[in-house]
Design goal:
- There is one protein chain.
- The protein is of the alpha+beta class and 359 residues long.
- The protein has 2 domains: 194 residues, Ribosomal Protein S5, domain 2 (2-Layer Sandwich); 145 residues, Alpha-Beta Plaits (2-Layer Sandwich).
- Helix content is 34%, strand content 23%.
- The protein contains 8 helices and 14 strands.
- The strands form 3 sheets. Strands 1, 4, 5, 6, 7, 8, 9 and 14 form an 8-stranded mixed β-sheet that branches. A 4-stranded antiparallel β-sheet has the order 11-12-10-13.
- A hairpin with a 5-residue loop joins strand 11 and strand 12.
- Helix 5 packs antiparallel against helix 6.
- The longest helix has 21 residues.
- The structure holds ligand DP6.
- The site of ligand DP6 has 17 residues, from helix 4.
Amino acid sequence: MSESSFIPETYKDLAEEGNFHWQAPSNIALVKYWGKHGEQLPRNTSISFTLNKCFTETKLQFERKDSSNFQFEVFLEGKREKAFEPKILQFFKRIETYLPFLKNYQFAIHTANSFPHSSGIASSASGMSALSLCLMSLEKAILKNDMDDSIFNRKASFLARLGSGSACRSTGGPLMVWGEHPAVKNSSDLLGVEYPYSVHKNFSNYRDCILLVDKGEKQVSSSVGHNLMHNHPYAQKRFEFANSNIGRMVNILADGDLPAFIEIVESEALQLHAMMMTSLPYFILMKPNSLEIINRIWQFRQDTGSSLCFTLDAGANVHVLYPESEEETTFNFIKSELLQFCRNREYIADRLGAGPVQL
Ligand code: DP6
C-alpha cells in the first residue's frame, strides 16, 4: 500500500449541498508515539485503547461553491472558533491530493467535545478523526459507489493521520495500532488499524479513570514536542524500546498477563516524560500532584495486590487504568485517596470504547 492508492478516480459530478455528522472518540496510548518524520510518519509503532466517553461530535455542512482557495469556518459549540482554523487549513492542504473536491465547496465545521475544553484533554485526536469521517462520507456520496466499509475506514484513518498522528488511532476500536511492525499483521505507517488478534478477557471493558490534575493550554504543543526528538541524544534507543514493547504487548494481550502489562504501560508513560525532560529545550509536564497520584497508586498496588496502573499523555493529567473486575475497590480508592489531588476533584470515569459512530 502506498499514498497514491488513496488518490481517487476522477469525480463525475459533485453533490450540491448537505451535511454529515460523526462522533469520534479520543484514545489513550499504551505504547506511545513520540517522534515523527516526513509527512506525519511515526518513528515507532504505537498502540492505544479507544475511549468511550471522551469524544468529539462534528457536523460538516457543505455547499457547492468553486474557488481557488479553501473556504471554511469552524464553530466550537455554536461559536466561531478562529483559533482552530490554521490547523484545519494545514490539514486541508495536506489532504487535498486525496480529496480533490475540497476547493469546490464552502464548509461550515461545527464541533463539540464531550469533555470540558479546560480539562487538558487534547481534542485533536477525536476532532481530526471526526472531521476525516465526515469528509469520507462526502467523498462516498460524490462517488455514488458502494464504498466498502474497510476502504472507507482505512482512508478515514489515513486522512486523520495527516491532521494529527494520534487521530489515526481514533477511527476504530477498542484497540488500535499505528506504525508498521512485524508482530502486527497489516500494520502500517500510513494509517491506524484495529488490533487484529483476539485479546484476553482480562482486558475486556478495561477502565480508564482520567484524573484532571491541571487544566488548559499545553506547555508544549505536540508538534513542538515531536520535533524535539530530532537530534535527541536518546531518540534512537527510545524508538527501539517502543518497538520492542509492541512485540511484548502482543503476547501480553493474548495471555492476559497483567503484571507485565503494568510494567510496559507505566514504563512507556515515564519514558515519554523522560524524553521531554532530556530534550533541548527541556520540559517537565508533570505537576507535584501527578507525582503524588503515582506514588499513591504504587503504594496501593503494593498493599493490596491490585492491578491498577497509570499512564500519562504529554501533560499533567493521570490516566488510571484497571480491569473491570476491580472496579469497585479501585474506584473507592480513587475517590478516597486520589481525587484530593485533582483540580476541583474533577475526573472522567471512562472505559474502552468501540470507535466512531455516524449520527
Ligand atoms: C503524547 O498526535 O498530538 O499523545 O501528530 O503532532 O498532532 P501530532 O501529535 P499528536 O501526539 C500525541 C502524542 C502522545 C502519545 C500518543 O498518543 O501516542
